[in-house]
Amino acid sequence: MIEYRNVKVALLGAGSVGSQVARLLLEQGEELAGRAGAGLELTGIAVRDLDAQRDVELPRDLFTTDAESLILGSDIVVELIGGIEPARTLILQALGSGADVITGNKALLASHGPELFEAAEQVGAQLYYEAAVAGAIPIIRPLRESLAGDRILRVMGIVNGTTNFILDRMDTLGESLEDALEQATALGYAEADPTADIEGYDAAQKATILASLAFHTSVPLVAVHREGITGVTHEQVVAARKAGYVVKLLAICERLLDEEVSDGVAARVHPALVPLGHPLAAVHGAKNAVFVEAEAAGDLMFYGAGAGESRRRPRFSAISCRPLAAT
Ligand SMILES: NC(=O)C1=CN([C@@H]2O[C@H](COP(=O)(O)OP(=O)(O)OC[C@H]3O[C@@H](n4cnc5c(N)ncnc54)[C@H](O)[C@@H]3O)[C@@H](O)[C@H]2O)C=CC1
Ligand SMILES: N[C@@H](CC=O)C(=O)O
Fold first, then answer.
1. 262: which residues sit within 8 A by CB, 6+ positions away?
2. What is the dihedral of CA 196, 197, 201, 204, to 10 degrees?
3. Cα(196)–Cα(204) distance, rounded to whole angstroms?
4. How far is the CA of 98 from the centre of ligand 2 (A)?
5. 314-to-179, 225, 282 alpha-carbon distances in Å
6. β-strands 245-256, 264-275: how paired?
7. ipTM above threshold 0.95
8. Which end of the chain is more exposed for a tag (fewer CB within 10 A), N or C?
9. Which residue range or ranges hold the Aspartate/homoserine dehydrogenase NAD-binding domain (predicted)?
10. pLDDT digits over 139-186, tens only?
């Protein structure tokens, strides 16, 4: 039997995503160790309420309400609490203690990304966030690493599964936005506050992250034009189809080319008419798809699971590959 060195993993949060991450770390520990070349030891799970009902049954002795103590002595901290505080403070504390951090927290990255990346750089720690944008789709690493030598001109796509699910139901089943949202919530696609989905905040946060990476700059969230889908009516969806289009909520990040001064950047989120023959028109349900237009590589398309019940495994794949990379 191979003896692996042990990497201590602290998990913060055991909600929809965190509880699945814990389950898979426990269930597939040996397989992951084989792939990572190191044992991933889940040392504890910090939660707010020890008695809360969870999606998954997990060993009770792993739970603690003392996130700060759990972080101390950890090699990797996985933050799946969400929101700004205490997530921000806990991540800074983890980085300060020298741990690598993995987070799926797009809201925090969109509003405090530069502060967190600087904190990581100062101590030589890594901050991984593949799961923060487009679910299971590996898009962060391709933008940050694989395409680092290319000049990206445009990143455009469907990055919110909830709104894609709703628009798809309005189009194919004639359902109302309200009924489709209820379904999306029941299926676990929507955020705790679904306003983040239907008003385009979630997609705007993801656009901020994508634009910053693609154009090697820091695009502030307030600079992203945002319009959600609450103004989209059944009549508009029907009229769009008759005219050969389908309505999709798109995130569009573009380089504004300028030969005289340095290039500008534009990022926006809004409903758009996508021609029925376009690949994005075939993205159904809660699936996501991202198009990348690069100078040398040409057009690339990334497609896969974005949110929902099936998102939990995809999310895990996006989260779990980071510990592998981090070890
Ligand atoms: N649900 C999804 O489909 C996706 C979620 N994410 C991100 O992953 C993160 C987690 O999302 P979910 O699991 O859906 O959230 P959730 O609301 O289901 O779970 C959050 C967990 O954090 C715990 N928590 C809250 N405050 C805490 C505190 N002070 N100390 C310790 N634990 C605390 C809660 O008790 C709960 O267990 C968020 O940043 C979210 O944006 C990213 C991609 C998809
Ligand atoms: N609510 C989000 C979940 C994943 O990021 C979405 O619908 O895409």
1. none
2. 150
3. 9
4. 30
5. 26, 29, 20
6. antiparallel
7. yes
8. N
9. 13-130
10. 999 999 999 999 999 999 999 999 999 999 999 999 999 999 999 998
